[in-house]
Fold this sequence. Notes:
mainly alpha, two-stranded antiparallel sheet, 5 helices
Amino acid sequence: MRIGELARRSGLSAHTIRYYERIGLLPHADRTRSGQRDYDASILTWMDFLDRLKTTGMPIREMLRYAALREGGVATEAERKALLEQHRERVRAHLARLQACLLVLDGKIAGYAGAEQRMKNHDAAIPQRRRKPAGTRQAGAR
């Protein structure tokens, strides 16, 4: 498949695909007779995995390390597994921090909802002060 179709199907721009290929995250594509890149559809699975690593915050240098190990085949499985396990622990720690932040946000939002209700209750409890119409003051009342 051509780079335009790969970009459409992967959700990445053609520029990003060429960049990933240049730095070694993607294998170099075969070329057509006219010199255009011709990707095999199986690359979409790899690109989806890279996107998940990126989404979970894995630095590109670690993604490159994983890609290089992947090229090494079966002999590198233990090292790839260890790299992914370390990353998983960082993701879990990050999720725990996010969950704690979410609880704080929920509490703050609930506090604002409570403040709105308190204001409604307060406004309802205060009798409205009525002003006398202009010109109804008694003479010498100052």
